[in-house]
Amino acid sequence: MSSNHTTIVSAPGKVLLAGGYLVLDRSYSGLVVATSSRFYTSITSPSSSSPLISPSPLGSSVLPTALPSSSSAQSSNGTQSLTLSATSSDETQHSSSCEISVRAGQFSCQESTWTYSLSFDDDKGVQVEAIGEGKNKFIEITLTQTLRYVRARLAQDIGSVQAGKELRKRSRGIQVVVLADNDFYSQREQLSESRLPPRISSLASLRPFHPLPRPIHKTNKTGLGSSAALVTSLVAGLLQHLGVISIPSSSSSQSETLHHTSSPPPTQSTSTTSQSETLYISSISFGLDIVHSLAQFAHCLAQGKVGSGFDVSSAVYGTHIYRRFSPSILSQLMNSSSSSSSVSSSSSSLLISSLDPIEWDQQISPFRLPSGLRLMLADVDAGTDTPSFVGRVLKWREAERDPANDLWGRLDQANRCLEDVLSRIAGRESASDYMRELEQASRNGVGEKEEGSDGLVGLLGDAKTALNEIRRLLREMSDASQVPIEPPEQTRLLDACSACSGVIGGGVPGAGGYDAIFLLVIDQPGVIQAVEDIWASWTEMSVCPLLASQSDGGLRLESLEAVRGLKEALER
Ligand SMILES: Nc1ncnc2c1ncn2[C@@H]1O[C@H](COP(=O)(O)OP(=O)(O)O)[C@@H](O)[C@H]1O
Ligand SMILES: C[C@@](O)(CCOP(=O)(O)OP(=O)(O)O)CC(=O)O
Predict the structure, then answer these.
(1) CA distances from 8 to 241, 358, 550 (A)
(2) What is the pTM of this model?
(3) CB of 13 shorter than 6 A to ligand 2
(4) I want to staple 485 with a disulfide (CB 3.0 to 4.6 A). Which of 102, 267, 323, 512 is the partner?
(5) What is the tally of structural domains in the chain?
(6) Same domain, yes or no, for 154 and 181?
(7) 313 and 436 share a domain?
């Protein structure tokens, strides 16, 4: 077999619509919306290097031939058993090391290709060493920890020595390309080079995966969570390619259902599926759950801290209401791992046990924005540093416990009101006059709910009230903590946008600051145009739209032909 074998996986970006700061504390939840802009990981290896993986059309599910069927027993951690056929006789052809390269496809090839040498030692497990000068901590750590995990899983089934040989065979010749949709990075320069105004239509006309002129660390990000989407898609791509999991494909009708029902047992399955469906879903969703725990771990290790993890969670599961995992789940692993690339048998079992989805207590509750509404995002040109914001806000909360807890409680209530009213609007989607009423409201304007107005118009008014209340409380937090979460410049911009007919409301996503805003609007051309006019003429700060809107789906397996511009970008 001479043709290559390719796996392409994508993960969405994120917008934390409600729950910034609160979501760091497991007593509260956050509303995270996944974006239509995605991060792609493509993994190719010569088909001869992965003899146990059936050669299949690009983008289709690539199950290892030796994997048991869905009716077979599952291993202790719930993922599928990796029972293998005897290691093939060609293993002697391979040396005890091999190389894997990872290239960031839209950056300079020279500066943004990282090559890693993998050695497989019977005692030490797999060792990953960067070759050359350039470093990419997120990629190196993700690659290392994912290979450690795969080796540890293989070792459970076929013993340590065979596991090393098998992994070496499967890893040989792997080439990875990572590509982010344009939205992840500021496209101001690309727009002005092409003499295009900062409009959504201009962004749509830029070539997909537009090459970027500077190295990654000097490129302005837009806040969609590039590192979380990178880590998640890379973990998932490798696990899929190496035959450990099976991710739903983008064409699979199951994928949205999976998203809405996938949650680590036993905490929060709100699924109403039949038992047989549930069995099918849970065997696959366990694949997603292992991606989740491994990606959270790799992301925390690369960041050097354990954050709330809402970004990784939405990269895996898509839009949802997120309650964080207990940080203690990762303590032992974080302490024992540093970024060390080797693995002893004791740390190997710690890896398997700590990442077992059964041990994880995050909650993923289904949520989606109602149809007919649209999330609009803008990149605001001014820089803030989220880590320092978080540190300062938490320090204030520590110092002023009572007022802070009182504020946390009121914010939580406002956040829940927003979730509740949006779900109630979504509950009306099937009404025959739903779209007509929305269209009418987009012309008449959405006001905070008035006495006596009920029905859809009343609900839209309630949504406006909830969004405004959240903003008001975040300004209270800004004043009390002296951290500019919604600074006056953003207040002016948001107020101007919110006054537009058809705009329900908006806010500062996540940690807030000067970087970005979101708006929730009725999805009508007139409304979008009016908002874009305000942004284009805003002089106090430079406001550039993002192309993305909301998307429900999380991680997915892609087919090369289905993603505009991907083939060309991979061939560059
Ligand atoms: N396209 C890319 N290719 C490779 N690595 C990337 C890419 N985009 C982001 N990264 C990695 O993620 C890091 C940025 O992470 P971070 O500062 O946490 O930003 P964000 O908030 O967008 O996640 C970069 O330094 C780089 O290591
Ligand atoms: C404060 C937070 O609750 C939310 C931060 O959300 P952002 O979307 O601002 O995050 P970055 O991608 O790191 O910029 C911290 C957290 O939950 O980890």
Answers:
(1) 9, 27, 22
(2) 0.89
(3) no
(4) 512
(5) 2
(6) yes
(7) no
